[in-house]
Amino acid sequence: MIDSTALFVRIHVMKILTTLLLALMASLTTQAADAPAAKTEIAVIGGGCFWCVEAQYLLVKGVKKVVSGYAGGKTENPTYEDICTGETGHAEVIQIEFDPAVTTYKEIIELFWDAHDPTSVTKEEMVKHGKLLPKGTPYQGNDYGTQYRSAIFYTSEEQKKIAEASKAEAQKKWKDPIATEIAPLKKFYPAEDYHQNFQARNPEQGYVRAVVTPKTEKFKHTLEDKGKIKPEAK
Fold this sequence. Notes:
Number of strands: 10
Number of helices: 7
CATH architecture: 2-Layer Sandwich
Low-confidence stretches: 15-24, 26-36
Order of helices and strands: HEHEHEHEEEEEHEEHH
Strand order of the largest sheet: 9-8-1-3-2-10
Structural class: alpha+beta
Shape: globular
Strand content: 15-25%
Helix content: 40-55%
């Protein structure tokens, strides 16, 4: 038979050990909760219709979030209808939140030259979609207007230096001059909710099927070649 005193001691010891174990687990949980999240940075770029560029950069390893929006214009709180007039000065852009420990700002910009044609401006005056367009009007594919211009909006002098150096390096690969605007970000305006994550939410929409998905698939191969595609996107 087990001595009652010995049994009491064993139970008491087990309670103490259990209490210590629970305290340790709670401490570890608290430390994990208090641990700072991975530091992220922001990049703002425009490469034509934001539906395309958004879908492309959502595939990039280290990208946490992409928001479609407007930047580079004079009108406050512009709407999509305002932007489409081409008179607000804004470009369709995306704001990218990314983990620089996985993909750096330099790599974000290097991929930008693969995501679109940065040399696309009209070579002469022309009429498109019933509108007279002056020589030098930006376009991507069949989208014409200043709202579709190629642009990088930097948030620091370091980003500016990286963007300018990257543009100079990329120019070596293009016959025509790169027309990408590099300018300070004054204000980013998120686009309307229905523009966000547009490809995923509207896979059968005509423009998505004809333009967004083919461009995204092409970009996907580029990311695979460079080892920059998210594992879940393979």
